[in-house]
Specification:
heterodimer; A: 355 residues; alpha+beta; OB fold (Dihydrolipoamide Acetyltransferase, E2P); 2 domains; elongated; B: 270 residues; mainly alpha; MetI-like fold; 14 helices; 73% helix
Chain lengths: 355, 270
């Protein structure tokens, strides 16, 4: 069990600075997910933690000790790779035992650890097979098994589910959650899938162009996104962002619609008004208006059974709303939406930071 | 359906194979009869075949000794090629300053014919005190640039994450090479074995220069020597040729499947 800290960790490739400086503290047994779009530097950070990539500056500390100069094998870290990275010429059991053999672990101990990990991951029946005889999901389990047998201080996962189909991904996500409770180890998990991040993480680190946009629990990053980038990245469909002006205690949209500003946000300035699709409440025609309403026209209607996703035009801008089934029937319908001022988010128009 | 549609192509290939094999068949046939190869009309089947020519070759010259020399020198060349080429190729797959120049230098060295370097090679071998020795005979063939690139292409086809995983598992470079890369690159090993064996086995020029003692000669030199011994050479000469060819053929047949894959690997990779 261990803690992991990154202090001003930097990475440059030639003249290109991909990670300008990241600070992060991962607590003992904490599960932290690095999430961000492709090319945001999340895998590079992971590879620097593992030692596979040299950092260009800053420090990596495991249990308070700087490990920058240590070889990957001396950091006591196990990594699960995106493409599983199983040795094709070895059986599942040999793959799992491989690292232990080079660490001078006794044969009996290796056998018992492999058997235990196989049992945890339900792959005991596969131990004599070679990787090519396994399905994608089974290979991923073996890759995790190989990490578990090492009993390392830290687990690193590099987009482990991205090669699996959608159904299997959901299943493996559940497996990883179960694994967390059985093998509680400090973990850094990299993904570009915000659903994976939300469902697995104790804390999420949202990265954009090598910079940390926000660090927080899944609830925090969802409920109070620190920047417009986080607001748009977390949530599906993403948060609606409308150009608006903050005028005293009101937020005024381009078409003059005025909404009460969230408490303590009073000032005169250009802002982005954020509202989540599920925070828009449908008002059936003829219902007496209570509070301010957003009026728009449905552009597309996607009935999903349990809910209906509607894309609307409001104040000359497109927004999406997650509405009850059978609320809006077809495109072209006029739609009135109520919104709780407490559920509105305001972001600075220039910097994109939360106000 | 498909197999039936292929028969004209197969028939054509069989004819071509037969044509390619005619000279070899003629060598074997002549070695068993000793008949004049220019005899007209030519006889397709051997008349009264016998093995006396083979016996002559075995006893007239120290054939077993030449065979031993050739085998040892070729084994040294094969071993050297696998070990040294794999090490060189692994280095070339890693990033280091000036790698591009090293690759260019190696490629340009391939343009220099062996004959042009034979004097310095001789002087170096002499300086090392290896003239007239098995190691000296194998020395210039211990590593070949073509075979380095065969290994390099094979190593580059191995997913990078496997090497990363091996490093995480605690393996150093030598072990990554021995335990991960080489077992995954058997076709490249087979290609190295066959090419280096054949080049060493057939080499005439270098053994001619570095051997002083007749007992250190290899089979190609022995063949030349044998020609000067016997008068009616035809049958014995062909028997000798067969005996020289058989080990090379055996090595090729044993490794040919992997060899084909090794030579075409990289060709299909985008």
């Amino acid at each position: 069990m261990a803690t992991l800290s990154l202090r001003r960790l930097r990475k440059t490739f030639g003249p290109v600075e991909v990670i300008p400086g990241v600070d992060l503290d991962v607590g003992d047994r904490e599960f932290v997910v690095l999430v961000g779009p492709s090319g945001c530097g999340k895998s590079t950070i992971l590879r620097m933690i593992s030692g596979l990539e040299e950092s260009s500056g800053g420090d990596i500390l495991i249990d308070g000790a700087v490990v920058n100069q240590r070889e990957p094998k001396d950091r006591d870290i196990a990594m699960v790779f995106q493409d599983y990275a199983l040795y094709p010429h070895m059986t599942v059991a040999e793959n799992m035992a491989f690292a232990l053999r080079y660490r001078g672990v006794a044969r009996a101990e290796i056998r018992s650890r492999v058997a235990h990990a196989a049992e945890v991951l339900d792959i005991t029946a596969l131990l004599a097979r070679t990787p090519r005889q396994l399905s994608g999901g089974q290979r991923q389990r073996v890759a995790m098994g190989r990490a578990i047998v090492r009993d390392p201080k830290i687990f690193l996962f590099d987009e482990p589910l991205s090669n699996l189909d959608a159904k299997l991904r959901v299943q493996m996500r559940t497996e990883i959650r179960k694994l967390r409770t059985r093998v509680p180890t400090t973990t850094v998990y990299v993904t570009h899938d915000q659903v994976e991040a939300m469902t697995l993480a104790d804390r999420i680190v949202i990265l954009n162009r090598g910079r940390v946009e926000q660090i927080g629990t899944p609830e925090e990053v969802y409920e109070t996104p620190a920047t417009i980038f986080v607001a748009a990245f977390i949530g599906a469909p993403p948060m609606n962002l409308l150009r608006a002006r903050l005028e005293g205690a009101r937020v005024v949209l381009d078409d003059g619609t005025a909404l009460p500003a969230p408490a303590h946000r009073h000032a005169n300035r250009a802002v982005w008004l954020g509202v989540r699709p599920e925070d828009l409440v449908w008002r059936p025609p003829g219902t007496p208006a209570i509070g301010p309403l957003l009026h728009g026209t449905a552009l597309t209607v996607e009935p999903l059974g349990a809910e209906t996703l509607v894309l609307l035009e409001v104040a000359g801008q497109e927004i999406s709303a997650r509405l009850p089934p059978r609320s809006v029937r077809r495109a072209g319908e006029a739609v009135a939406l109520a919104v709780d001022p407490a559920r509105l988010h305001l972001f600075d128009h220039e910097t994109g930071s939360r106000i | 359906m498909r197999a039936r549609g292929m028969w004209p192509r197969h028939a054509a290939l069989l004819v071509v194979c037969a044509i390619m094999l005619v000279p070899f068949y003629w060598v074997v046939k002549t070695s068993l009869t000793g008949e004049n190869i220019y005899a007209y009309p030519p006889r397709l089947l051997p008349q009264a075949p016998h093995l006396f020519n083979y016996v002559d070759v075995w006893y007239l010259i120290p054939f077993p000794r030449y065979l031993l020399n050739s085998v040892i020198v070729s084994l040294l060349a094969v071993g050297g090629n696998i070990v040294l080429n794999a090490l060189a190729a692994y280095a070339l797959t890693r990033a280091f300053p000036g790698r591009r120049w090293v690759v260019l230098l190696l490629l340009s060295c391939m343009l220099i014919p062996f004959q042009a370097t034979i004097i310095p090679a001789y002087l170096i071998t002499a300086r090392l005190g290896l003239l007239n020795s098995w190691l000296g005979l194998a020395l210039p063939m211990l590593s070949t640039i073509v075979c380095i690139f065969v290994f390099k292409a094979a190593f580059e086809a191995v997913p990078r994450s496997l090497i990363d995983a091996a490093r995480m598992d605690g393996l150093g470079d030598l072990r990554i090479l021995a335990r991960v890369l080489l077992p995954l690159c058997k076709p490249a090993i087979a290609t190295n074995v066959i090419l280096s064996f054949i080049w060493s086995w057939n080499n005439f020029m270098w053994p001619l220069i570095v051997t002083r003692d007749p007992l250190m000669q290899t089979l190609p030199l022995g063949l030349a020597r044998f020609l000067s011994y016997v008068e009616d050479t035809t049958g014995a000469l062909y028997a000798f040729v067969v005996m020289v060819l058989v080990p090379g053929l055996a090595v090729f047949l044993m490794a040919q499947k992997e060899f084909m894959r090794g030579l075409t690997a990289g060709a299909t990779k985008g």
